[in-house]
Amino acid sequence: MRELKLRTTEQYPQYRVETKRRNIDVYLRQDYHKQGDGIYWLMNPGTMLLSHYPQELKDNQKRLNSEKPLQDGEIVLIEGKQYRLKVLGDYSDAGIFEEITI
């Protein structure tokens, strides 16, 4: 089971998720519907062109390419709790996590 870490200061996408059309790079975010709701979700930042690609970005892409993308239904660990990923699609809100309660 993978452990995902919430980082609010991340400059480049943290993870990659598999959608029906393609794999997309995403950030893990919290508070989906409104601030303070605590719901974890995946944000697709969209495409961005740069005049210069820093080495840090190239290294991040290599890391993402080497890791298996997150998949619909996958169970992950976030801040000590288990969540199931529901992939929404190739949208800005690419996925949402549902807490697994035992």
The percent of residues in helical segments reads: 10-25%
Morphology call: globular
Q: Work out the helix count.
A: 1
- Percent in strands: 35-45%
User: Widest sheet: strand order?
Assistant: 1-5-6-7-4-3-2
- Radius of gyration (Å): 14 Å
How many separate structural domains? 1
Give the overall pLDDT as a whole number.
Answer: 92
Poorly predicted runs = none
| Distance linking N and C termini | 17 Å
Tally the beta strands: 7
* Backbone structural class: mainly beta
Secondary-structure element order, N to C:
EEEEHEEE
Give the biggest sheet.
Answer: 7 strands, mixed
Salient structural properties:
seven-stranded mixed sheet, 102 residues, mainly beta, 1 helix
Give the gist of this structure:
This protein is mostly beta strands and 102 residues long.
Task: Give an account of the 3D structure.
With 102 residues, the protein is mainly β. It has one domain (2-99). Helix content is 12%, strand content 36%. The protein has one helix and seven strands. The protein has one helix spanning 55-66, and strands at residues 2-4, 15-18, 23-30, 40-43, 75-78, 81-87, 93-99. A seven-stranded mixed sheet has the order 1-5-6-7-4-3-2, with no helix packed on it. Strand 2 and strand 3 (23-30) form a beta hairpin. The longest helix is centred in the middle third of the chain and has 12 residues, at 55-66. The two termini are 17 Å apart. The model has no long low-confidence stretch (mean pLDDT 92).
